[in-house]
User: Fold these one by one.
Assistant:
Number 1:
Amino acid sequence: MIGIGTGNPEHVTIQAIRALNTVDVVFALGKGQEKADLVALRRAICERYIEGRSYRFVEAQDPERDRDPADYGGTVEAWHAARAALYEALIAAELPEEGVGAILVWGDPSLYDSTLRIVDRIEARGRLPLAVRVIPGISSVQALAASHRIALNRIGAPIHITTGRQIAGGLPPDADSIVVMLDGHPRFDHLDPDLTIYWGAYLGSADEIVLSGRLGDVAGEIGRLRTEARARHGWIMDTYLLRRGD
Amino acid sequence: MIGIGTGNPEHVTIQAIRALNTVDVVFALGKGQEKADLVALRRAICERYIEGRSYRFVEAQDPERDRDPADYGGTVEAWHAARAALYEALIAAELPEEGVGAILVWGDPSLYDSTLRIVDRIEARGRLPLAVRVIPGISSVQALAASHRIALNRIGAPIHITTGRQIAGGLPPDADSIVVMLDGHPRFDHLDPDLTIYWGAYLGSADEIVLSGRLGDVAGEIGRLRTEARARHGWIMDTYLLRRGD
């Protein structure tokens, strides 16, 4: 399981490149424009960094997933089960015994990514003997901070990393640096306009957009940029830091 | 400002290597065994990855810092001011006009690292015209998660990243995944023994040690490992994740 960074092929680490060069099969799940772009990125990374080694790139359709389910836990559970069954079948069919397979994870495998849980499930099913190794990658959170030239934390203070869903009812009361990921429908109208926001989309990629300022002043512009960029790309992935009292 | 990862020279990204190969001067502050080891790591990374380019490695003594000050804010403030003055003097003396200088940051520049704030201070003083670029690196938090093969978050749930100082009075009540960094004197006796801990020291390096389990069962062993490793290396840097209800 190889973290490949956030869309900039130069975010790839030497450790990831070395691992890629041991691979027999690269597995990628795709569906829709977002997934197609990310599969293309994975192909480009393999083509750029795997040298003098023959490998196969196996692509399959990602199971359908409701992004705004009424039953969040149950829907995620079913989606993980479907992905585990699909990966298990792909590995069984495509990977030779003692072969090395890779799943290329966008960003870092430890941060809001389901691939580790899915591989755990395959191991728990016990039908395929796997030896799993995880290689970390640059996450969009780090790319956000680097592009804005900021530390995520204030001096000695905590960082709260959360999701759009979790802050729908408001921010945690005692956090002063809050990173928000996976916010499909950001709305800022329920938040304090005096917060500072450091926002970014397509972080690390050639299409990166970043903007920062007082939330009340820039929320409208972020909304416009999002709408316009989503229409152009067919998808959007953004991340932002909210800070109290900057 | 180049994030170089956590001690594994293979955590370096292609982006960092490309930046290293534009550098005229690498600045490093050292003092004591810990700093000496980290300066040696920086030298090794430069020697390994800078090719066909002449650069200088400028090392200076880091200002003294009280790690357990009575006045934390004031002490940090004074230490940042001293480091800013030192870096400013080094840059003015050592870097030619239009030259490219690098500061190699252990881990990622956005996470509990003072270098960005220090460079901001130098810019604010206005004596040296700087154009600053930040390159993200793999952090010890990501190396911890990779070695334990875990996601930092539970499905859809937040992550709280904090310091040993912040949890001295107990954990935040509503966080279920808490990453603790910079804990010079970890004591676990005030914490719920039913927490699960995923602990690691010297993460990413050849000396990496990791251990996980129910806190009440493994806290003693972690203490022994820490004491023994600190005596052997002369310093220790560890990071851990505490999880409720695993």
Number 2:
Amino acid sequence: MANGTPFGNFGYLGNFGYLGNFSLFPPCLHQMPSFCYSAAMCPAATDSADYLHNMRHSLAHVLAQAVMKLWPDTKPTIGPPIDNGCYYDFLFAKPISTEDFGAIEKEMRKIINQGQTFEVDALKVDDAIAFWKEKKQPFKVELVEDLKAKGETKVTNYRNVDAKGQEMFVDLCRGGHVENLKEIPADGFKLMSLAGAYWRGDEKREQLTRIYVVAFPSKEQLQTYLKNLEEAAKVDHRKLGKEMNIFVLSETVGPGLPMLAPKGAVIRQELEGWIRGELKRRGYSFVYTPNIGRADLYKKSGHLSHFKKDIFPLMQAEDAEYVLKPMNCPHHVQVYESRPWSYRELPQRFAEFGTVYRYEQSGEVGGLTRVRGFTQDDAHLFMCPDQMQQEIEGILDLAFYIYKTLGFENFRLRLSLHDPANWEKYIGTKENWKLAEDALRNALEKLKLPYEEAVGESAFYGPKIDLIVKDVFGREWQLGTIPQVDYNMPERFDIWYNDKDGTKKRPVMMHRAIFGSFERFIGVLIEHFKGAFPLWLAPVQVSLVPVAEAHEGYAHDVEAALKAKGMRVTYFESTDSLGKRVRESEKQKIPYVLVLGDKEVEAKSVAVRNTRTGKQEVVSLDQFIAKTAKDVDERNLECSIG
Amino acid sequence: MANGTPFGNFGYLGNFGYLGNFSLFPPCLHQMPSFCYSAAMCPAATDSADYLHNMRHSLAHVLAQAVMKLWPDTKPTIGPPIDNGCYYDFLFAKPISTEDFGAIEKEMRKIINQGQTFEVDALKVDDAIAFWKEKKQPFKVELVEDLKAKGETKVTNYRNVDAKGQEMFVDLCRGGHVENLKEIPADGFKLMSLAGAYWRGDEKREQLTRIYVVAFPSKEQLQTYLKNLEEAAKVDHRKLGKEMNIFVLSETVGPGLPMLAPKGAVIRQELEGWIRGELKRRGYSFVYTPNIGRADLYKKSGHLSHFKKDIFPLMQAEDAEYVLKPMNCPHHVQVYESRPWSYRELPQRFAEFGTVYRYEQSGEVGGLTRVRGFTQDDAHLFMCPDQMQQEIEGILDLAFYIYKTLGFENFRLRLSLHDPANWEKYIGTKENWKLAEDALRNALEKLKLPYEEAVGESAFYGPKIDLIVKDVFGREWQLGTIPQVDYNMPERFDIWYNDKDGTKKRPVMMHRAIFGSFERFIGVLIEHFKGAFPLWLAPVQVSLVPVAEAHEGYAHDVEAALKAKGMRVTYFESTDSLGKRVRESEKQKIPYVLVLGDKEVEAKSVAVRNTRTGKQEVVSLDQFIAKTAKDVDERNLECSIG
């Protein structure tokens, strides 16, 4: 990942949040190092995270030791800890299957119970190369040779020794372990799955077998995790999205190119309308730009050279080459530079629901969350340097308003900063970096938001804040980037404004997206709400169930009254049984079922069944309309009737 | 034009309405035959249209005669009448310039005043070939040879003879002339411009010089036309759109790929919001589909073979070829076919603001109206055959509501039918064609809408109604297609619904677009309103002009009050003179200027200057808010204050 950010190659607003099947493809797969040797690649361990990291890291050694005991001719490669456990990649002489998991786990428990400890040997690189050659471990040899090529003179091996001091296993490793393997809870881990993985991610190299392990400090925590996993699978947006007719995939259209069916379009339009209104209130203006541009535009922006493999193949037209845009910024810069701006007119905040395309490998795409085409709720802000902090505060305020309204309560903020040891990696002056990093930090401090600093995790073109959201299953999602400062684009396009003193100055540019992309956000919401959307977002809000044919006239009156208020209504004719129609409404996760019989016709009332609470309440039609209108206007999470 | 429709190669919702510089590029350039010999290509002449056609056609002969007299070594090619006059394409031995127009016009008047008449010679094709070879006119030879190849056995030459019976000029022609050239008003025509044109539109053939002439029955009519032209040039959307910061063109993004700047985006969002609400009220649902699809999709739909040259070059990805979509229908069909439908669920009306791309030649693009990328307010309706008429009525009702609200009062409806002499050209059964044509005709009759029938002008896949709108300058614009019946797409994708009797039936599909495309429609509206948009569409609605610094506090209160109501406001600080700020507001065509001085501060009132009427009125702030809100809600064309 060229620019040091974990969220896709573009450094921000990337395709990869935490979604997906999070057992087979752990959330952190795109976030964590694939080779744990280099300490710079392992985030600094802190407090309890320290124990978790060391325990999971040690468990990877246990896994490798067990595998080597069972199949001694296996070639181990690397095995880092990840957010929920660890994995290890092996080259097996003969394929293994999940049926072998029992034997491996048994062996691992045995090793843990032996109470082995770690001992470290510091070796000169050449000695280490000789050592691993002697051991006939070609992958380890390659790793050390690479370290040597990078200028390392020493490396470390970690040996597991038993109580008698006998060596049981040795691995090339930088360290970060428990002292005694007994600190690993023998009933707190579980082998989860197998996956294929190329050595060093290179499809031309050896195809390895990756074993995923989940690991927690206690059996109870493991069980909670596994239960959450099971619950999460039930609300997998790919399953629910199909059942609820929210989106459509078509092989003929192409993988990673989901279409929103009418019910999904309702959700998107509600989200669009909501944020559009908020943006206008907050002084944003909108722009519309095409999905393509000439290759020259992306040469100038630098995307074509930096991110070519993530861009769809160029279109070779007679007059020029055209690019399907991977991001909206170059176009927004074109709008900015189409006229001169005075400092009095800044900040300019250009928003667009911009559809972009990135050529992910087809094996990596699926559902609404790993896609090749997606629409960002994108914006680019152009400002004077002294306006940075205020703009950052505005963006954070908007993001928290949006997420809290949707019931996300657990947040984590990460401030990604430059690496002071590597100034040559970055564009922009040190002075400007300090200005931007201070503005980001001061905004977080002023709003009293807790955050972690990630030194060296910024993009090469500027620092940023990422918002990581935790859902009801405790899974973390990287959604918006709020914001990403950019010193590169203004420089490359030579944009400016007229300052007070009459001179031309370079504006600061910020990228930001709150939802990230509508596709992924809708995917997250489906799972977050388990399909049971709050009233204002529900594709169908009310189902009408006349008890018998005699009540259909009234039911149609109710339908007309609700539709006149803009409510989304489904009408169930009385041909099927009452029970069946109510059940069908529940299955479709329609918030309210109105059962209409003699009493309701007489009293002009409606018998409301709240499918979320299972409770019933009879209210007048007017009351029903007033209460639902209030819930919709206020975007309440609960349905307040019944 | 493969399928007999004049509006772009796709047959409907095409790129070409009547916009553009209508003198240099006459509106009918894409509508009229480039070779007038074949009567089938010249629309049937009627009544006064008959005289106009014959007069303009005869004038083309006069033009050619004059040119040949002045430069005898010129090779004439073809010269048809067009909507506002005629043109003729010549191969000149030496280039001419508009400075020669005086001499040509003088010669033409002399010819007209001689009172020449037309005489006709019917010749066998071979004799005609010999005749034109003898005359050393290679283009005429080629035309006759082509006619021979098509099976024609006879052709006609028309000779102009003077009062003494002496031949003055001869041309290959099918006829349709005045009897005596004196019937052409010598002061009713004017040479307008020169343009390059390839022989037979083929860029590999000779490059010719085209002379455009405008011609009317009287000097007065010519002058009115020229004056309209001058007025229209002032409101040319390309000029006004730039002055008003509505859209941005960038060479680096590419020709024909306009971007909407913030002020243009306001107009588009108002139009979007309006029609989105109307569509929901009228039972449409929305879908969202990507801008690309695999080539297989367009092979299946037939677009790739029929319209390849109009599609952007394919993207050759590793897993498949991808197409930048030229239209939305194949995607909408994919959404339809993603689940089964019962007859009880039909009609389904899928709408999308779908952005499509068509590779027009770069010389043909410009402004907002001749573009390569545009967003259609598209919809596809899937219905049972017996629902056709009702759906057509619904579409017509919507179209008339939209256009009338915008102040378009002059309409022309054209019902394009199949050609009964060429059944082999069409897809679909005769029975289905009758059903569809009857439904279209019956809907027009029921709504008592006058219309013309255009036999043989339908697409090969179904009949349609086009709505042609006349603007304040009398120019006609083809905007929406309302609707186009399609028997091709359902057949190719084999889509169906479950009918009452339990069998699978083929639904009828209709394409329709009301605005056509947002880009073109905004271009039309800029010219239609001469930049002075009605309050609800105006990018900026109110300008605030405090008389002096002392009034700025109150002015900011007014600003806040208006913004809280969602009004779009510009604030002019008191640093410039009052007159300058008012003039600047008028220049920007802001509907209302609020001048705020001592009296207004005291009375909590606003002195309103209506820039449209030039009148002033003092009203309370509350009254101003109430009245403007009403004008916006009702989408009134007039600003009712002042």
